[in-house]
């Protein structure tokens, strides 16, 4: 037989199993096996403990033959005694026996087969019997290792699966919770939209008395179905009721409150809320609403929650709370916070302006913290009418109502709200016969049943949407009017007993609750503070008024806009016309200026050619000092607006009337320094001028006017530059007073013949200087009334006057008139002379003989 060397790696691997998995302790299948296991335990470090087959770390176990130490002849002691040689022989014999009895081939085959194919040790374990006894321990060790590895692998797989399962479970659970929350949220929204009264059903546990009596439960509530309840009317018959939430006997106060809290929170948002408990006597109405000191009910927890919320929101909303507690006992309202407990005090229900029911005179106590409110609740509970009945030791004999008022003011918007939360613990419906009441208790029961019956009627009417709801049939329904059919959120607890002895009442209560649940009273709405509402009402009225005014103003504004638009259009057109006219005028002015320039030029030329002779030398001033020149004989004479005043001259000559009128012309020579030379000044041409020739006085008028104005006489154009401009600048195109000729000169010489041609009617200003000058030179015959050749006597004299006004040098104010009115005409000395100009005391005359001279 070929000896098998032990593989150190296989040995190491087999000798050190994973720490996490203790080696499987195999139970021996029979005595042989047990012996093998014992061998295994006795020699744990045996090199035979190796794996083979599929395990690469395991090599086939060494053959027992090869593994067994072979005693060499040299190792044997020579000359030992007989006993020692005997022992050795025995050992050798045993080893020989073992080697011969256990062939290692079967084990190797087993291991190979198992290692190659066998995954499941149990499949091959029956083959252990085929293996000879000496090989069994090794086979068992091998199998044990295999088991251990497998178990380890399974364990890892299980852990992995567990992790996976936990993860999936958590995900599914979260999804489920989310779905539930979503469903509840949607359902609540639906309920709010439909305005249903929410109904929670709570079933109390069987009490000790019922248990003792062996009463069974007629109610079945499945934990998985939170909204369903099954009423077992008989063994075969079950009736299912559906409510918004069903609480079983095991549900405690916290669970109940956690479902109630969303409704309670609404009161902080400004909704009116009403929570009431209904049910047979002794079913736990007071327990749910008030609770017991060690296990508080909805009232106390709700107020606690409201105070907590107010504290949480105090930065944005300021809340104030007040509480009123009353009871309806035998159809009378009693104020439970009234310390005087005056029985004569009568309280009644009145409808307020905003349509809600109020109890005037009801005490409304301000509360500031939860301890304070708890005191008030305790005080009210102490005053409540309770009595003992067969059904309940402390049976409520009245309907108890706690009204919690929340006033809020939004600190950011200033909006105020006032909302109520009613918490009602109704008296229990009871069967008189069952409760065994009489006397006062019987009377109480009758009142209780009557008011509960009224409540049932109201609910029925609401459910069937009757037009008339009999709220006023009882104090209870009248008080709860706005809660049952109004715009508040209503929550009803229907309390039931599970006992089979109360099955009739339980069924009644469940039917009633189902009807209540079907009532739709429209969606709730937020309540405003009545004072605030009044203020808002006034404001809205004012707003309406203002809106009306605004609308009227808008209409008038629109019409005005239209008016302005049309006026603007007209004005624009007018302005365009005016601009056009102005342009025309300017064009015309330019034309006239050109004409004037031409005429001036012609006049200058003409004057140069036909200048009148000067006066004799003796009468003339020295040439160097005489600055007087006769006026030009034509329109080319330069324009002047202001002649130098006489006052500005030195050696003002004093010309007396005598001198002036005398025949001696020497006196005239003294006015030598008076300059009559006109100052040339460019005067802008004004387009629009009034015609000075439009109205001219007659000769007599001229003279009188001249006398009157003589004291302040100045050249008219000096004072009225516009007139002078008009006189010299505006030349009518058409002759104003017929064709003007210069035939009226003393010698009949024709100075100038002016034909104005056509002209605009707007330019009917005085004729130009040329024309005027021709008029100025008047013959004595003309003075005496002869009609001039051009325009007749009147026109001639007018022209003369005009020319005097415009051309004459202004005389100083102190100077006396040089020519008295009319004197020049009738004085024989001056008959031949015609005054044509005056400068102070100097008078320019035209002499028949000398033509022109200065006196
Ligand atoms: N869910 C509950 N868990 C434990 N005990 C309860 C529960 N409900 C009611 N009880 C107990 O049942 C008894 C009667 O309850 P309770 O006085 O509240 O009934 P009730 O409906 O108010 O009766 P009544 O109409 O006569 O006033 C009390 O002792 C109360 O502790």
UniProtKB/TrEMBL annotation:
Keyword Coiled coil: yes
Keywords linked to the UniProt accession: ATP-binding, Coiled coil, Microtubule, Motor protein, Nucleotide-binding
Biased composition (Basic and acidic residues): 34-43, 599-608
Cellular component aspect of the GO annotation: microtubule
Residues reported to bind ATP: 279-286
Top-level taxon of origin: Eukaryota
SMART domains: KISc (SM00129)
Low complexity bias spans: 1-28, 75-86
Residue ranges occupied by any Kinesin motor domain in the UniProt entry: 196-519
Pfam family, one: Kinesin
Region (Disordered): 1-100, 599-643
GO molecular function: ATP binding; cytoskeletal motor activity
Pro residues bias: start-end ranges: 58-74
Keyword Nucleotide-binding: yes
Protein family according to the UniProt entry: Belongs to the TRAFAC class myosin-kinesin ATPase superfamily. Kinesin family. KIN-14 subfamily.
Protein name as annotated: Kinesin-like protein
Species whose genome carries this gene: Urochloa decumbens
